[in-house]
Amino acid sequence: MNEENISLTHQGITETLEKNYMPYAMSVIISRAIPEIDGFKPSHRKLLYTMYKMGLLNGGRTKSANVVGQTMRLNPHGDAAIYETMVRLTEGNMALLHPLVDSKGNFGRQYSRDMAYAASRYTEVKLMPVCGEIFGDIDKNTVDFIDNYDGTMKEPQLLPTAFPNILVNPNQGIAVGMASNIASFNLREVCNATIAYMKDKNCDISEFIKGPDFSTGGYLIKDDEALAKIYETGRGSIKIRAKYVYDKKNNVIEITNIPYTTTVEAIIEKIVELIKTGKMRDLNDVRDETDKTGLKLTFELKRGVDPEKLMARLFKMTPLEDSFGCNFNVLINGEPQVLGVRALLGHWVNFRMDCIRRRVLFDIEKKSARLELLQGLEKILLDIDKAIHIVRNTPDDSMVVPNLMEGFGINKTQAEFVAEIKLRNLNKDYIVKRIAEIENLIAEIDDLKKTAESDARIKKIISKQLGEIAEKYGKDRLTEVVESDGESENIEAVQIEDYNVRVFMTRDNYFKKITLVSLRAAAEQKLKEGDVMLCEAEATNKMDMLFFSDKQNVYKMRLYDIQDTKASALGDYIPNIIEMEPDEKIVYATPAYNYGGFMLFAFKSGKVAKIDMKSYETKTNRKRLTGAYGKGDLVSILYVPEDREVALLSNIDKCVVFNTKDILTKTSRSSQGVQVMTMRRKSLLKKMDFPEKCLKSVEGYQARAIPSSGYYLKDEDSATVQLSLFEKG
Fold first, then answer.
1. CA atoms within 13 A on the CB side of 73
2. Catalytic residue flag (residue 244)
3. Which one from 21, 24, 122, 712 is the annotated catalytic residue?
4. For residue range 594-631, what is the model confidence (pLDDT) as tens digits?
5. Does the N-terminal or the C-terminal CB of the chain have fewer CB atoms within 10 Å?
6. Which domains can be identified in the chain, with CATH numbers?
């Protein structure tokens, strides 16, 4: 090479970086990595819009490869990137709370790093029904359309989502110099919060949104301070914990849900590392038994290992408990902003109001155009003979429209519409219907104009849509919010001894836990003056104790957290141990008995609810469950280990004995129950109890069918009942 022909140009490195790198950085931020207020990145939006235009909202599935190929007309990044985007949106991948793509075939799993998805030629897809709420009225000028990358097609700049998708489905992205990590929230909770926000911008978001909700389930460790920060600033960290069950028979722990932020492979690798380094000696085997039915990690325990202590250590030392760092970075009018939940709701409401207003204006324009045609027709129909005469006496076809315009004083559009009317439509019925349509159109246009000018009307429309969406697509939370137990760090140091005890609860909320040895030594119970025994039961020191209050709450405690006492002592005053509301009282207490059997709740109306004890079970030391039973005037509560006869007594000395097998067991704690005893002549249910405690014999009181009006108490039973009943103070 001839060195004399080489010419060098000197250029400053700073200038070169600024010239070449800044446009790239802006492109990544604005056109790739950060979602916009509709909850989508450009790659998501291009893919979903392509599927919408392919008719995959209502049609059958098509090969994923077909969708990928069509999407390349809008997205130039290649088939691999497009298909990977699709995978995350599918129902099969389980990455979203509300999947947007209905899928058939292997799409991998969010919770697995190594489970590869099948190639696009093997899988099939279509849009999920919820996408109807995302594309609704997109053809009515609700959003702006822009040219695609080569100017051959138009694509929407945003999608007119009818619900705050930005908060419902999770979104992660890494741009240049910034990132975004948006948690998902429960659809029903978000819709309710949005409705409340439109009524009052200063409403308490936490009343409606209990915290993030993830598709992989698990437990969200409640942290009011962190959640408040996320709701207001969009930044903060929350803890997510795996769910597990202990199989006592096989001495194994089965993990059924893991934190959204980790994978089964990461968990197993960490446990194997702990075993190799000698930090974990309590496991015989760790197996991944995930199959088509769902995720399952199985830990085989060595003999004598306490499963709760072991899980506390695993939560502390492995990703079975992990953190989700929130960074709600969203593009607002092309500008990246970190916004809290409240601010995001505000921007979404403004965006949605604009969509509704544009749709209304579109309808006004279309109806106005139709009205204009009909008003021209009305002038013609007033003198049909004249119109026919003009048409018949016009020698040139091209002059029909001008002659009609001149003859009736109408414009060209109206004249062309009239000229196209068929001869058979020139009858009285047709004329009457068209004139009536004019009146309806005028009224509709007037109403639409009022809507377009009224923010209150538009917000009412949005609220109605949100309510319908919450009802139609809302699901129960997958990630259960639990109180922080504070035990996971020090539980391994607590040596818990298990032994038999007897527990007592008084009407004035004093509680005793007495060992059987101590009870045999002094069986007579000391009570506060005027106090009476509410309930008593056999239990063991490691059992959970459930305290039901008159505020529909149930408080849970481990019995080993309550000190043993003696019969000669008053016992522990429960309000001093449990953080209860100031005017709240405990009305019933029972050991959980491994959460077998069921609870009965009787109400003054004569209804009885039968709730499965499993409904009160949690795998963390959660101290309070709200909504412990249905709303109503509660009369009595009973724990029943298995179906048996129970007596109901009214205030007019009527009694009915029924078998609990005649009532369906409910898992929903809010169940209002079924009518067991019919209340007449303003009578009320007064008591529910086991027959042996209030009747000498059940004969003559047994219900042939429920509901039953009951039977009057016999003289020999009346005195027994009066002795067994006591009013709550």
1. 14
2. no
3. 122
4. 899 999 999 999 999 999 999 998 766 668 888 999 88
5. N
6. 40-160 (3.90.199.10), 243-319 (3.30.1360.40), 357-473 (1.10.268.10), 494-724 (2.120.10.90)
